[in-house]
Amino acid sequence: MINATDLMLGNWVKGPIGSYLQVNNVNAEYVGVSYTIDRIGCSEHIEVEKIWPIPLTQHLMELIGWSLPKYQYFPHGEGAGTVTYVPEPKKRTFVGLTFVLKDWGVRKKGDIVFGNKVIEFLHELQNIYRWETGTPLDITL
Amino acid sequence: MIDVLELQLGNWIIGPDSKPVQVNRLEVIDAVDSRKRPIKKWLVNGLLTTDFKELSLTIDLLEELGFPYEETEDEIIFLLEKDNMAKPDDNRSGITVTYLKKQNEKGYDAGDFQFCDGLWHVRAIDDLQRLFIMFTGHPLEIHL
User: Fold this and answer.
1) Do B106 and B130 lie in a common domain?
2) Which of A71, A104, A127, A138 could form a disulfide with A81 if both were Cys (CB 3.0 to 4.6 A apart)?
3) CB-based contacts of A134: which residues, under 8 Å, 6+ apart?
4) pTM above threshold 0.90
C-alpha cells in the first residue's frame, strides 16, 4: 500500500490489478487516477489501500528514457562501483542519480541512489526530479 | 498563487482567509474556458489554487514549532530530526534547516534558509515538509 502523504498530482502508481495509473486526485481515503484504454481516457477513484508504488528498476529507468552511459568511468574511493544515470539529452537537465554496480559499503548492487538516499519507487523519482528541475518529469507508461 | 503540482497532503500553506491551512485534498479536473475550449483546473481542498499562498519560513515560525536550535555568530541551526547515532547534546547531527545571518562560502545569501547544511535552499514550510519526507520517508510533524 502507498502512503497518501507521499503523493503529488501526476505521480505514477500501480493499481489493484497491477496496471500503471497516474494520480489526478488525492485525499486521505482515496486516490483519483487516470489511464487510457483503447486511446480513450478514463478516470476513477480507488481506495488508498489498493494503490501501490511502482518499484524503480534499471529496466524501468530505461523505459522512461534514462540510460547508463556507454563508456563508464570507475573511480576509486568514494563513488567507486557506481555509475551515473543520464537523462534523455533533449531534457538538458541533470539529476544526479547513481546506479550501484556492486555491493559497496551500505549500498547494494542495483540500488538507485540520489544523494544519500536510495530511491525505491517511481513516484519518489518524479518528486525529486520536480524539486531539482522545477519541471515535471515527463513519463508515458 | 501556489503550484499545486508541488504540494502533498499534510502541507501547510496560507488559505483564502489568510490563515495557515493544511492540505487535505488535491485534484485536477477537466473544465472549459469562456470560449468552450477544454482546460485543466487545479484545486486544493476543493478551492482554486489562486486562493492559496506559500507559508514563508521564518525564524519565529521555526521557534514556534518547537524545533531545538543552536545559534552561532554566522547561523542558526534548527534540528528537525536527530540522527539515531547522534549524542544527546549534538544539534547538528540529523535533518536540519539552517538560517544564515551572513552570506556563506556556498553562495547563499544572508536571510536564506538551507536544508541539510546547504544541500538545498528552502523558502516555505511546504518546501521543508516535502524535502523532509523525501529524505526520511515519513512526514514532518507540524502543528499550527
Assistant:
1) yes
2) A104
3) none
4) no
| CA dihedral angle for residue A73, residue A75, residue A80, residue A83, rounded to 10 degrees | -20
B74 to B104, B110, B112, B113: CA distances (angstroms):
8, 9, 12, 12
Q: How close B125 gets to chain A, by Cα (Å)?
A: 14
Domain that holds residue B73: 59-136
The domain tally of chain B equals 2
Distance, in Å, from the CA atom of A13 to the CA atom of A24, rounded to the nearest integer, reads: 11
Are B8 and A10 within 8 A, CB to CB?
Answer: no
User: Chain A partners of B6 at a C-beta cutoff of 8 Å?
Assistant: 8, 130-131
* Residues shown for chain B: 144
Backbone φ and ψ of A133, nearest 5°: -105, -20
Interval A39-73: pLDDT, tens: 787 888 899 999 999 998 878 887 877 766 655 55
> A-chain residues within 8 Å CB-CB of B9?
4-5, 7, 26-28
Query: In terms of CA atoms, which chain A residue is nearest residue B11?
Result: A5
Residues B85, B43: one domain? no
Which pLDDT tens digit goes with each residue over A66-95? 766 655 555 555 555 555 665 544 444 455
Find chain A residues with C-beta within 8 A of B4's C-beta.
9
Which residues pair with residue A87 across a beta bridge? Answer: none
Shared domain check, B122 and B68: yes
Cell numbers 504540494: residue: B7
Q: Provide ipTM, 2 decimals.
A: 0.78
